[in-house]
Design brief:
Helix content is 42%, strand content 14%. It is α+β, with helices and mostly antiparallel strands. It folds into 3 domains: 87 residues, no CATH class; 62 residues, no CATH class; 200 residues, Ribonuclease H-like superfamily/Ribonuclease H (Nucleotidyltransferase, domain 5, 2-Layer Sandwich). The N and C termini lie far apart (94 Å). The structure holds zinc ion (2 copies). One zinc ion binds next to loops. One zinc ion (ZN) binds next to loops.
Length: 480
């Protein structure tokens, strides 16, 4: 009897084991084929090509006037400075429309020096310049290692690439020396696999002076909301504070409060409220520190994955930027940072941004440095404190990772957004909640931005209602 039972039980165990193995295989297949974007850890990227070099030397061109210079020459020497005599029939390598970037002298005064790639030399002011280098009109970009002018080598969509081509540049020589014998072999066969020269990417994003955007009066009228302000407050509390989906919020409103409302109506209300609250969130006079951290997370918009860039005051726990973009690129990083700068009355001197190892932040840093907004970028790379920077700034980076988790917790129930507008609405409401309504453990259970009027309200729905009315009052005050 007993042996029979044992065989029977062993048989069951064997079958169960097979089922478990089959299920595990399925889980692995599902994760492998998931279309969820995998944020590649920057330490896995091919740094050979992705290394971001330091800023070039930017020499602002001192503006001279060739008329005045010719005049001075005449007064000093008693002779008229003659245009360059060019022998007939000799082809010169110079576009006749070229003018000197420094003194504006016409091509008659320009020596075309060293063949097709060569520089020009101005006879009037002695400036050396490369006629192909468009940027040279305003400034000359020079290699920080050998101080020779950089050459524009690529016209990419959105940015130009400048390169120091000198074979005697210390940067190039150092790279060459650093190659192993194997790498040297490969380099001779496939030089394009290697980044050997100093490179600079110039982004062609129009730099808008950092100032607050003019307030656009929202077109939404809250009179379209057919429920009492308190009910609206309740809806927002469930939907945003507790991260319940619109459908669950609707069910809760009926089951608990006897209010009949559809999930779609809740989404519409969320959208209208976010439009009213967005200008308030963006123009509030925040008190800021000089340490900020940034991170990206992803959200689903109309069936596609988008990146959400958060920037956050690491000390005061205030969200300053929430930029949604289909791409995780330098342009997005530049726009996300712009949202932070817009909230600063002036740019602090020791401004620091703590981010991950993604090179887009270094490129964004270069972009802003070029436009007179210098700041320091500390990259916390990987999961271990391998380098002193990571060790020092990891706690700050962890703060924003926590913010990301909080956001994901609240966002998960929404199961993605049907439209860009829907995602912006939810992200806006989340940020309003985070900055003004959510007590923070690290701030002794206080909210990051304390508004006394809100503090007086007895409960959360009341606080939401008050916030909406403060925002409306504020908007009214902005109308001239
Ligand atoms: Zn000149
Ligand atoms: Zn160089």
């Amino acid at each position: 009897m007993l042996p029979l039972l044992l065989t029977y039980l062993v048989d069951i165990i064997k079958r169960q084991r097979m089922i478990i193995l089959a299920l595990m295989k399925l889980v692995i297949l599902l994760t492998q084929n998931s279309r969820m974007p995998q944020l590649t850890a920057p330490d896995n990227l091919n740094y050979q090509k992705l290394k971001v070099d330091e800023l070039p030397l930017i020499e602002k061109v001192e503006k001279l006037d060739y008329h005045l210079l010719l005049q001075t020459h005449f007064e000093k020497t008693g002779k008229v400075l003659q245009p360059i005599q060019r022998r007939n029939g000799v082809k010169i390598n110079l576009d006749l429309n070229t003018t000197c970037p420094r003194c504006n002298a016409p091509s008659d005064y320009l020596y075309a020096n060293n063949g097709p790639k060569g520089q020009c030399n101005c006879k009037v002011c002695d400036a050396l310049f490369s006629p192909k280098n468009h940027f040279s009109k305003a400034a000359i970009l020079k290699c920080p290692h050998c101080t020779h002018p950089l050459e524009k080598v690529k016209d990419r969509n959105g940015f130009d690439v400048y390169k120091c081509k000198r074979a005697d540049c210390p940067y190039y020589l150092r790279r060459l020396q650093g190659l192993t014998a194997e790498e040297k072999d490969l380099f001779e066969k496939q030089p394009h696999q290697f980044k050997m020269h100093y490179l600079f990417r110039q982004f062609n994003i129009v730099f808008e002076p950092i100032s607050k955007d003019s307030i656009i009066q929202p077109k939404v009228n809250l009179a379209n909301i057919h429920c009492s302000p308190y009910t609206l407050g309740l809806i927002l509390t469930y939907h945003v504070n507790y991260g319940l989906s619109a459908r669950k919020t609707a069910a809760l409103m009926y089951d608990v409060h006897n209010v009949k409302i559809t999930g779609q109506t809740i989404l519409n209300y969320a959208s209208s409220t976010s439009v009213i609250l967005k200008p308030f969130l963006e123009n509030y006079p925040y008190e800021l520190s000089d340490q900020f951290c940034g991170d990206e997370t992803y959200i689903r918009v109309s069936g596609r994955w988008n990146y959400l860039f958060f920037f956050f005051d690491a000390v005061n726990k205030i969200i300053l930027s929430n930029y949604v973009s289909p791409n995780r690129d330098t342009e997005s990083a530049i726009y996300a940072l712009r949202e932070v700068f817009k909230k600063m009355p002036q740019i602090p001197e020791d401004l620091i941004f703590i981010v991950d190892g993604n090179p887009i932040y270094l490129l964004a840093q270069h972009y802003y440095a070029q436009h007179g907004i210098p700041f320091d970028v500390k990259q916390v790379i990987g999961l271990t404190n391998n380098d002193p920077v990571s060790k020092e700034y990891r706690p700050l980076k962890q703060i924003i990772e926590r913010l990301n988790r909080t956001f994901k917790g609240n966002y998960r129930a929404t199961t993605g957004f049907g439209s860009q507008q829907g995602s912006v609405s939810f992200v806006t409401l989340f940020c309003v909640y985070f900055n003004f309504l959510r007590p923070h453990a690290a701030l002794e259970k206080k909210v990051p931005v304390l508004i006394p009027e809100l503090d007086k309200m007895p409960n959360m729905p009341g606080k939401w209602t008050k916030l909406i009315s403060l925002s409306q009052d504020w908007l009214m005050d902005q109308t001239p």
